[in-house]
């Protein structure tokens, strides 16, 4: 994934024509499009290949199973045309390792969820977040997912993983996080969904976030 605008669109719309229209509109303003269960369940896995014409595709399936099942899932998703898959880290080293090995063979990326951005992540996940970040670094994953709603945690996670791994951060906009604060905390890319795809003018919404990011770099 090229680091140009440092913005990733989270495309959680349900209709494939709408997904294509928005992707076309934001071309050039985003470095990647993140596709997850809502769009894929509503419109089929082949949407990944269609959207890959507009940007790199990160498949957010938060893969969280035993190693063999994780490998089967990642194979399907890479075969469909995704450039990267998001996997959960809490399932442990072997479940992660099989995904990272497969991605390396295929020249693709794995991003590992450390701690999520919603309030409930404080119940259980935050305690494991730093351990998961360390594991992602040990396994040489491409990067981690860390919360834009808690820039101080992005800073902590950056200290643990160093500069070899990337950080991608959801939680900007609808969840209350700020693109500028998250970039200043050390994230490489912010992930923005509703603020862009629910806007009357998604291209302008994306452009505004990109200028906010540029202003603090
Ligand atoms: O809140 P938004 O509409 O900007 O969308 C954020 C996206 O990022 C959405 O797809 C959600 O499933 C994903 N995500 C988080 O919000 C928080 C995480 O910790 C991980 C993924």
Descriptive overview:
Belongs to the OMP decarboxylase family. Type 1 subfamily. Catalyzes the decarboxylation of orotidine 5'-monophosphate (OMP) to uridine 5'-monophosphate (UMP). The relative contact order is 0.14. The protein has helices at 16-26, 37-43, 47-51, 67-79, 93-105, 125-138, 151-161, 179-185, 194-197, 202-216; strands at residues 7-10, 32-36, 56-63, 84-88, 109-113, 143-145, 166-170, 189-192. It is of the alpha/beta class and 217 residues long. It starts with 6 loop residues before the first strand and ends with a helix. Helix 6 runs parallel beside helix 7 and helix 8 (179-185) runs parallel beside helix 10. An 8-stranded parallel beta barrel has the order 1-2-3-4-5-6-7-8, surrounded by 6 helices. It is globular, with a radius of gyration of 16 Å. It has one domain (7-215): Aldolase class I (TIM Barrel). It binds ligand 3DU. Ligand 3DU is lined by residues 10, 12, 36, 60, 116-117, 145, 147, 170-171, 173-175, 191-194. Residues 10, 12, 36, 60, 116-117, 145, 147, 170-171, 173-175, 191-194 line the site of ligand 3DU.
């Amino acid at each position: 994934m090229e680091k140009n605008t440092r913005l990733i669109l989270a495309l959680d719309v349900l209709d494939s024509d709408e997904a294509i229209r928005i992707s076309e509109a934001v071309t050039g303003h985003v470095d990647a499009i993140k596709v997850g269960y809502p769009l894929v369940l509503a419109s089929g896995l082949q949407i990944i290949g269609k959207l890959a014409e507009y940007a790199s595709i990160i498949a957010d399936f938060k893969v969280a199973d035993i190693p063999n099942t994780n490998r089967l899932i990642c194979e399907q998703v890479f075969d469909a045309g995704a450039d990267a898959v998001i996997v959960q880290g809490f399932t442990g080293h072997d479940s992660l390792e099989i995904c990272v090995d497969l991605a390396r063979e295929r020249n693709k990326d794995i991003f590992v969820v450390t701690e999520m951005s919603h309030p409930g992540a404080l119940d259980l996940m935050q305690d494991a977040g730093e351990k998961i970040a360390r594991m992602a670094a040990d396994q040489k994953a491409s990067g981690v997912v860390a919360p834009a709603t808690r820039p101080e945690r992005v800073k902590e996670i950056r200290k643990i993983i160093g500069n070899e791994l990337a950080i991608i951060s959801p939680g900007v906009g609808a969840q209350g996080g700020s693109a500028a604060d998250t970039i200043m905390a050390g994230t490489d890319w912010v992930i923005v969904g509703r603020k862009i795809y629910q806007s009357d003018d998604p291209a302008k919404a994306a452009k505004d976030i990109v200028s906010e990011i540029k202003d603090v770099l």
